[in-house]
Amino acid sequence: MSQYRTFSARDAVAYAQQFGGLDNPSELVDAQEVGDGNLNLVFKIFDTQGVSRIIVKQALPYVRCVGESWPLTLDRARLEAQTLVEHYQHSPQHTVKIHHFDPELAVMVMEDLSDHKIWRGELINNVSYPQAAAQLGEYLAQVLFHTSDFYLHPHAKKAQVAQFINPEMCEITEDLFFNDPYQVHERNNYPAALETEVAALRDDAQLKLAVAALKHRFFSHAEALLHGDIHSGSIFVADGRLKAIDAEFGYFGPIGFDIGTAIGNLLLNYCGLPGHLGIRDAASAREQRLADIQTLWTTFAERFQALASEKTRDAALAQPGYASAFLKKVWTDAIGFCGTELIRRSVGLSHVADIDTIKDEEMRHACLRHAITLGKALIVIAERIDNVDELIARVRQYS
């Protein structure tokens, strides 16, 4: 029989005392539930001085933002913990550290990042972290290279693919990214004023054909152990530091999906900035987002290429020129997946604060239209966007 029970704040404190790894665990005396996501309970555990020292996270057996009518596997907690542990091995400076995990309770104890801030909120508030885009590119290069066929022995790779099979969470991605926005569905969530634009998505055969190809790649290309949901809300930043969290969607999939999701969220911020800032500040911040995208991709591609040149173990994949050719494919995939992220965050179930918190309704609708238009264009013309400079030019064209 399962030992699972939903934690209270008192439970979280007791668990942190037992598994937090502190020299004096009795210092931990209080907890506050701070989870603002769609899936989990997250407790900050405080010491006698009121300082947050440890995080306790527990998966719920349903989608939190919907309720018990949408049940969800607790095994996602195991997959999240193991994904973060694996990623930490390859990029400890940019991955949250997991201290302990219990699969029966679907609970993990992890390092406290209270001295960091969520990157999405900082982007909305136009707070600059000059190294963040390069650090994200470095994180993605390290974790995606070291879990790919370039680095892993084929036997080890196949074993890891089996270990990280994540069908229920992948199904959520498959529905929210590639199905729901392109049909009438009760999960879709958009203002009535955008019905014309959304109906056009459903009626666009060329677009839906391109989305089908992207979904097929998501199904079938087990290229590396993805984070699976690497957006600006699952990244903590501080001066000179960046940490990835929340990897419950981790699985082996196409590398371009993680890259495209990351770029897509920077573009969602780009689309929403006029609703948060004055004209001049918004224009300047938008240029910074484009620079961030360029830095992110350039850092990722250069570091992946360098790692491939130095560490590729497979004789065929070590052939000069192959890693470069592979990255071109990753880039094309990333542009398409980026477009699906823009559309699903505008039309589908789960939106982003970059646009949803815009107070002026007319401006909010305009920003949503921009995201939909840009996302649609990127999906359709992905194969014609050869490099990051061309992407930036296209973004400006649709602004």
Automatic annotation (TrEMBL):
What reactions does this protein catalyze? 5-(methylsulfanyl)-D-ribose + ATP = 5-(methylsulfanyl)-alpha-D-ribose 1-phosphate + ADP + H(+)
Q: What is its EC number?
A: 2.7.1.100
Pathway membership, UniProt:
Amino-acid biosynthesis; L-methionine biosynthesis via salvage pathway; S-methyl-5-thio-alpha-D-ribose 1-phosphate from S-methyl-5'-thioadenosine (hydrolase route): step 2/2
Q: Which residues cross the membrane?
A: none
InterPro entries of this UniProt entry?
Answer: Aminoglycoside_PTrfase, Kinase-like_dom_sf, Methylthioribose_kinase
Q: Where does ATP bind?
A: N40, K57, E111, D112, L113, D246, A247, E248
Q: Which residues bind substrate?
A: D229, R344
Which GO molecular function terms does the record list? S-methyl-5-thioribose kinase activity
Q: Tell whether Isomerase is among the UniProt keywords.
A: no
Keyword hit for tRNA processing: no
Limits of the Aminoglycoside phosphotransferase domain: 31-263
- Give the record's keywords alphabetically: Amino-acid biosynthesis, ATP-binding, Kinase, Methionine biosynthesis, Nucleotide-binding, Transferase
On the tree of life, the source organism's domain of life is: Bacteria
Q: Which HAMAP family match?
A: Salvage_MtnK
So what family is this one in?
Belongs to the methylthioribose kinase family.
Among NCBIfam families, the record links this protein to: MTRK
The record describes the protein's role as: Catalyzes the phosphorylation of methylthioribose into methylthioribose-1-phosphate.
* Subunit structure and binding partners: Homodimer.
| Protein's name in the database | Methylthioribose kinase
Q: Which organism is it from?
A: Kosakonia sacchari
Q: Which gene encodes it?
A: mtnK
